Automatic annotation (TrEMBL):
<feature type="domain" description="EamA">
    <location>
        <begin position="22"/>
        <end position="153"/>
    </location>
</feature>
<keyword id="KW-0472">Membrane</keyword>
<feature type="transmembrane region" description="Helical">
    <location>
        <begin position="137"/>
        <end position="155"/>
    </location>
</feature>
<feature type="transmembrane region" description="Helical">
    <location>
        <begin position="81"/>
        <end position="102"/>
    </location>
</feature>
<feature type="transmembrane region" description="Helical">
    <location>
        <begin position="258"/>
        <end position="275"/>
    </location>
</feature>
<dbReference type="Pfam" id="PF00892">
    <property type="entry name" value="EamA"/>
</dbReference>
<feature type="transmembrane region" description="Helical">
    <location>
        <begin position="51"/>
        <end position="69"/>
    </location>
</feature>
<feature type="domain" description="EamA">
    <location>
        <begin position="164"/>
        <end position="297"/>
    </location>
</feature>
<dbReference type="InterPro" id="IPR037185">
    <property type="entry name" value="EmrE-like"/>
</dbReference>
<feature type="transmembrane region" description="Helical">
    <location>
        <begin position="161"/>
        <end position="182"/>
    </location>
</feature>
<feature type="transmembrane region" description="Helical">
    <location>
        <begin position="194"/>
        <end position="213"/>
    </location>
</feature>
<dbReference type="InterPro" id="IPR000620">
    <property type="entry name" value="EamA_dom"/>
</dbReference>
<dbReference type="GO" id="GO:0016020">
    <property type="term" value="C:membrane"/>
</dbReference>
<feature type="transmembrane region" description="Helical">
    <location>
        <begin position="281"/>
        <end position="297"/>
    </location>
</feature>
<keyword id="KW-0812">Transmembrane</keyword>
<feature type="transmembrane region" description="Helical">
    <location>
        <begin position="21"/>
        <end position="39"/>
    </location>
</feature>
<keyword id="KW-1133">Transmembrane helix</keyword>
Length: 300
């Protein structure tokens, strides 16, 4: 007789079980969640750090792809698929650049929470555009998670004002929502590697253009600066976003995208461990509520 948790671990698209997808997606959010700490350590501007993050990640993905069978990579999508992939890459570059700017003008917790409002929009967008009606439990968990994230950032106390950095984070949220919806639309139509490589090419090209508008790409000036961009490119981007792409498309839109809200919790704990930023009552309570919502989503 199987337990309820094993019963829910059904095989998803691509042969992975639902449990494996959730665990890998959680690992991805840890890798992404430490990204803001490294952005603060980079000794170049936000647009430059976004370019280096994406470029180093692209090099890593190309290096990995060279060791894979040619048929598995599959780099020849149709015209429509290629357009969607490049569009997703452009949206992600805009998201990442805007998010890096937001981190320079507001608290890490605020920027992370506001940028991660995208799960709500993804779930609603998948419902409206693709007919993927979310389960009631998933919608409840989503609402609970958003409440927890709001509590963690002290949002109820500052609802009357939106700082410049918070506004940038909201714009980043819209770009990231578009990116997730476009990549989800292609799930099953093209291989994971096609999605990763084509969106990476598109995002690097877009990030280069954005950096050019800021006066051109600047190289890091120190060893610590290079270490930070390497961490962003290989850990937060290659591991984090790569695993997110692979797993999110294999999970229900509402409960799967909800896992992206683990980012604020990881950012809070990382700031505590690295910078001694002890979380206040609002942050601790909000983090606990988010974790409870993640458990609820896992059961749904």
């Amino acid at each position: 007789m199987t337990s309820p948790s094993l019963t829910l671990s059904m095989t998803t698209r691509g042969g992975m079980s639902r449990t494996q997808c959730f665990l890998l997606l959680m690992l991805a959010q840890v890798a992404i969640g430490v990204g803001p700490l490294m952005v603060r350590q980079v000794d170049v501007g936000p647009a430059d750090s976004a370019f280096w993050r994406l470029s180093l990640s692209l090099l890593a993905w190309v290096g990995i792809a060279l060791f894979l069978p040619r048929g598995k990579v599959g780099l020849k999508p149709g015209v429509k698929a290629a357009s969607l992939l490049l569009g997703a890459g452009i949206a992600f570059a805009a998201d990442l650049t805007t998010y890096h700017f937001a981190l320079m003008h507001t608290a890490i917790a605020n920027a992370t929470f506001l940028a991660n409002l995208s799960p709500l929009l993804v779930a609603l967008g998948a419902w409206a555009l693709f007919g993927e009606k979310p389960a009631r439990r998933a919608l409840i968990a989503l609402a609970v998670a958003l409440l927890g994230a709001a509590i963690m950032t002290g949002f109820p106390h500052k609802a009357g004002t939106i700082a410049w950095g918070d506004g940038l984070a909201l714009i980043a949220c819209l770009f990231y929502t578009l990116y997730l919806l476009l990549t989800r639309r292609l799930a099953g139509a093209v291989s994971d590697w096609t999605v990763i490589l084509w969106t990476s090419f598109g995002s690097v090209a877009a990030a280069l253009v954005l950096a050019a508008f800021r006066g051109g790409v600047t190289f890091p000036h120190s060893a610590s600066g290079w270490a930070a961009v390497l961490g962003l490119g290989l850990i937060s981007q290659t591991m984090g976003q790569g695993l997110t792409l692979i797993t999110l498309a294999r999970l229900p839109a509402a409960s799967g995208s909800l896992m992206l809200l683990a980012g604020p919790v990881v950012a809070m704990l990382s700031g505590w461990a690295v910078y001694g930023e002890t979380p206040g009552l609002d942050q601790a309570l909000g983090g606990a509520v988010i974790l409870a919502a993640l458990v609820l989503a896992r059961r749904g």
